[in-house]
Amino acid sequence: MNLFAIFADHVRDAVAQLATEGAVPAGIDTARVVVEPPRDASHGDLATNAAMVLAKDAGLKPRDLAEKLTVKLAALPGVTKVDVAGPGFINIALDGSWWPKILAAVLDAGRDYGRADTGGGRKINVEYVSANPTGPMHVGHCRGAVFGDALANLLAFAGWQVTREYYINDAGAQVDVLARSAYLRYREALGETISIPEGLYPGDYLVPVGKALVAKYGRTMLDKGEAEWLPAVRKAAIDAMMAMIRDDLAALNIRHDVFFSERTLHARPDGQPSIIDRLLDELRARDLVYEGRLPPPKGQPIEDWEDREQTLFRATDFGDDVDRPLMKSDGAYTYFAADIAYHKDKYDRGFRRMIDVWGADHGGYVKRMQAAVKAASGGEASLDVELCQLVRLLRAGEPVKMSKRAGDFVTLREVVDEVGRDAVRFMMINRKNDAVL
Fold first, then answer.
1. Which of 42, 85, 122, 374 is most open to solvent, judged by the fewest CB atoms within 10 Å of its CB?
2. What is the 3 state secondary structure string of the chain?
């Protein structure tokens, strides 16, 4: 028993009655009618926007339509009061007979109370957390992790076939910085006194990685150049960081179904084209990639603008503000090219609905990625992006900075161990995801 759904049906019945009486035209679309709790509990138990969204089709002013609907709704059993508020919102108060019915329905359904089939078993991909694998998760990552997990749980409860996904950013310059930092810890584990230069990661969390490298390679990497030791150290460091991240997430009862490596998008096994190569060939064949110049930025500078001939994606054809570069001046692919290929891979895996949970600092990236998904899928897939404001942690009233490179951050695990998993999860979702916490 869903009280809001029951009264939404009552409102639609009231509209139908008015149409039968000739008070409003027949066939009015009531799909936008909602019944929900009023913003102020003193206004009653339920509120509906019916008069506001139907007034134009009804040929009436919202308040006039609201008054007509009020008469019908006030006659329903268990309704004690119906008021029209503001420009035409309708508030409804109920008598006590409703609540035992609701409680009985809750007890009868048990853990399935509220379960729905709005998803109809359709596939949906929810990507969340996706923190760079350069250290343990800090408390700033926690909000997106909990929000994404709660969203995935709700979608599954509503009948969607949900895949929870984590995108491992293991192909950028930051993981090379991680590898160089881990290599210093390797030398330290062999007895050398080291200092961590500015720009590398000084955190003690890389000490065990250095010891593990000694256990596996002994002193053999000391005589090798960076080009030789970097790939092995990078892999070992990323694997160690991802194991740590998985453990941190498990402490929050968060487990992903898929961990997708960015590096696989760039790989060219046996000299074959990479996933990104193949994507760009496909987009070129559809005239969605071209060689051209970007105009100078207007107002705020555009980070990736360069006054040179370059490979561009026709993002403006799909609602973006400017076409976007796909290759850097050194011939390497941009992050955007990899992100298009990644979302195309999701589409190829059968996902027509995708949700990404990002930090609010990525807000400027939303429109181009939605354009890219529309283009790469031929308009068959959609991308929703939920932005989470980062968490501001205070110590003695002063903000605590969250920098892995500075080695000054509070880990997610510290907070979970101190106050408990459920308390952390509750704190992270007790305010809207786009509000500062």
1. 42
2. CCHHHHHHHHHHHHHHHHHHCCCCCCCCCCCCCCEECCCCHHHCCEEECHHHHHHHHHCCCHHHHHHHHHHHHHCCCCEEEEEEECCCEEEEEECCCHHHHHHHHHHHHHHHCCCCCCCCCCEEEEECCCCCCCCCCEHHHHHHHHHHHHHHHHHHHCCCEEEEEEEECCCCHHHHHHHHHHHHHHHHHCCCCCCCCCCCCCCHHHHHHHHHHHHHHCCHHHHCCHHHHHHHHHHHHHHHHHHHHHHHHHHCCCCCCEEEECHHHHCCHHHCCCHHHHHHHHHHHCCCEEEECCCCCCCCCCCCCCCCCEEEECHHHHCCCCCEECECCCCCECHHHHHHHHHHHHHHCCCCEEEEEEEHHHHHHHHHHHHHHHHHCCCCCEEEEEEECCCCCEECCEECCCECCCCECCEHHHHHHHHCHHHHHHHHHCCCCCCCC
CA distance 141 to 69: 47
Q: Running along the chain, 437 residues long, what does each successive block of 10 average in pLDDT? A: 92 97 95 94 95 96 97 96 95 95 94 92 97 87 94 98 97 94 97 93 93 97 96 97 95 97 95 96 96 79 71 94 92 95 97 96 94 96 94 80 62 89 94 89
